[in-house]
Structure formats: structure tokens, C-alpha cells
Amino acid sequence: MEDFSAKRQALLDAGVQMMDPSTVYVEESVTVGAGTLLLPGTILRGKTVVGEQCEIGPNTMLVDCTVGDHVTINSSQCNESTIESGAHVGPFAYIRPNCHVGQDVKVGDFVELKNSNIGEGTKISHLTYVGDADVGKKVNFGCGTVLVNYDGNQKYRSTIGDHCFIGCNTNLVSPVHLGDGAYTAAGSTITKDVSPDALAVARARQTELPGWAAAHRAKKEKK
What are phi and psi of 7, to 5 degrees? Predict the structure, then answer.
């Protein structure tokens, strides 16, 4: 097994901080900027470059990633991607290869990115999959959003303009384009392009059957 102690000491001498150096594993090819804190369970591999004043970990692995300054990556895995300055990733996020995460982007808990570009200031806070997409600036993704990019045979790409608002539990069936400032209503499945500044609603209209629940309970009681 590779001896990481010399690399750890070199980083410490260069101004990198480690809460518990014995729990940090950094390959020789990695570069880390001064003032960055590597928390326990951090693994940095390949050609990874981490900027200054970042906080990486705990329990985080970066492989062949480029990370800007003042980035926080908490309990997450990132591969072959670029994460720009001021971004916040995790906890429990998964960034797959060929992603570009812009400045001040939030990639929250249980979010997966794949082959996607995320514009500056966009927030993807939780429980969302963004695959094969180009996303603009300051977009808000509601919880449970899915980019439906694969039909079992071919993968498709979607684009989302600046300042869009994606309602909770929205399915965007690629390929679709959302114009700047567009909204999607919660629970919608979007299969067509959405015009700028429009609200797209794609869900069944709610209906109500008066007294149904009481009658249903009565049947159960008779049994």
C-alpha cells in the first residue's frame, strides 16, 4: 500500500490544514492550496487540483477534479469534473464525469450530476438527478426533480435557461428546452419546450368523490 505520509507532510508544510492527518489520503499527483482544510476520510486522487481556503470532507473522494477557491465538499464523491469557486457540494452528493459546476452553485444532499453544466448561483438542494443538461444561472430546482435523459436506447440532452424555477417532483423528459425565467408546476411531467417566463403545468386535474372514504371504511368494518 502506498505510503501517504510524505505527501501529507509536504501539504502541511505548505499551509494545508488537517484535523487528523492519519485519516487523509492524497496521491502524489494532487495539488492542494494553502488554507484548505482536509477533514477525516478525505481521499484525493489522480490529477485533482484543489484551490485555497476550501473545506474538503469528511468522507469525501475527488478523482481527477479541478476545484476552485472557497469550495466546500462534504461527504461526497466527485469524478473528472470542474467545481468553481464558492460552490457548496453535499452532503451525500455524487458528481459524475464531465460536469462543470459554476461559481456559488449549491449541490445538496442526494443530488446526482452527470455530464452537465450548471450555471453560476444555481441551487440544486436535494433529491434531484441532473443528467445530460445545460443549466443557466440562478436556477432553482425543487426537491425530487429528474432529468429523464434515457429511453433505454439513446440519451438526450436538455437546456434550462437563466432564472428558471423547477417545481418539486418535476420530470423533464429530454430533449426539452426551458426559456429564461420559465416555471414548472410541482408534480409536472414536461415533454415539450417551455416559453420564457411561462408557467408549464402538466398534471391531471384534481377531482374529489364526496363521502368515498367513509363508505370505504364502512365496507372494511362489515368484513
Answer: -65, -40
Question: For the chain, what percentages of helix, strand and coil (3-state, to nearest 5) are there?
Answer: 10, 35, 55
- Report yes or no: 123 and 102 within 8 Å, Cβ to Cβ: no
| Cβ atoms 95, 77 nearer than 8 A | yes
Q: What are the CB-based long-range contacts (under 8 Å, 24+) for 78-84?
A: 81/113, 84/120
Please tell me whether residue 97 adopts helix, strand or coil conformation: coil
> Which residue, among 218, 217, 184, has the nearest Cα to 203 in the 3D structure?
184
- Residues 114-157 pLDDT 10s: 999 999 999 999 999 999 999 999 999 999 999 999 999 999 99
Give the confidence band of 64 by pLDDT, cuts at 50, 70, 90. Answer: very high
- What residues are labeled active site? 126
Report how far residue 52's alpha carbon sits from residue 98's, in angstroms, rounded to the nearest whole number. Answer: 23
What proportion of the chain, given as a percentage, has pLDDT over 70?
Answer: 100
Give the count of beta carbons closer than 10 Å to the beta carbon of residue 222. 6
Confidence at 220, pLDDT banded by 50, 70, 90: confident
CA-to-CA dists, residue 215 to 23, 207, 218, angstroms: 62, 17, 5
**Share of residues in the chain with pLDDT > 90 (%):** 96
- Give the residue from 194, 192, 190, 130 showing the smallest Cα distance to 163: 194
pTM to 2 decimal places: 0.94
Collapsing DSSP states into helix, strand and coil, what is residue 218? Answer: helix
User: Residue 145 corresponds to which cell in the numbers above?
Assistant: 426533480
User: Look-up: residue for cell 474538503?
Assistant: 56
